[in-house]
UniProtKB/TrEMBL annotation:
ATP binds at K66. Pfam families: Pkinase (PF00069). It comes from Chromera velia CCMP2878. The keyword Nucleotide-binding applies. This is Protein kinase domain-containing protein. Keywords: ATP-binding, Nucleotide-binding.
Length: 150
């Protein structure tokens, strides 16, 4: 599969010093498995050009699940997003959504494409696009102050 075979690009930066645990993040799953720790609910939270985000639970925790379909065209985007979210400085940053795991889902019906499910921390308040279009006055510095950071 594209994602699991391409994650080696996350292991070393250009200087060769950066290492990531991205490969450990990817889990393969199919319709026959019963021990999967994720449940995806119906009713999308949002949709973009690359996928649909659904509410779900992972190990009993509320999450957002970004589902990428048609991965032949979008595979490089999925890999890039996973690699960025796996970087140690980003992975636990308080102001960046946390990537919990990635599932590579293969449907039993081989005519259906493989999907990649990015399991992300669920953030309240809608999408970033919603915030920016709301007309509400907002600034990054104000967000820092409201969080007691600045």
């Amino acid at each position: 599969m594209l994602l699991s075979s391409s994650l080696h690009i996350c292991r070393h930066a250009k200087d060769g010093k950066y290492r990531s645990d991205c490969e450990a993040v990817v889990q393969k799953v199919d319709e026959t498995q019963t021990d999967v720790q994720i449940h995806i609910s119906s009713g999308a939270l949002g949709q973009g050009s690359f996928g649909i985000v659904y509410p779900g639970t992972f190990k009993g925790r509320p999450v957002a699940v970004k589902v990428y379909r048609d991965t032949d065209k979008k595979g490089p985007t999925v890999v890039k997003e996973v690699c960025v979210l796996c970087r140690p400085l980003i992975r636990k940053h308080p102001n960046i959504v946390e990537l919990l795991t990635v599932y590579e889902y293969t449907p039993r019906d081989k005519s259906c494409p493989t999907e990649f499910w990015l399991v992300l921390e669920l953030c309240e308040g809608g999408t970033l696009r919603d915030l920016l279009r709301s007309g509400e006055e907002w600034s990054p510095l104000g967000a820092f102050h409201s969080d007691g950071i600045g």
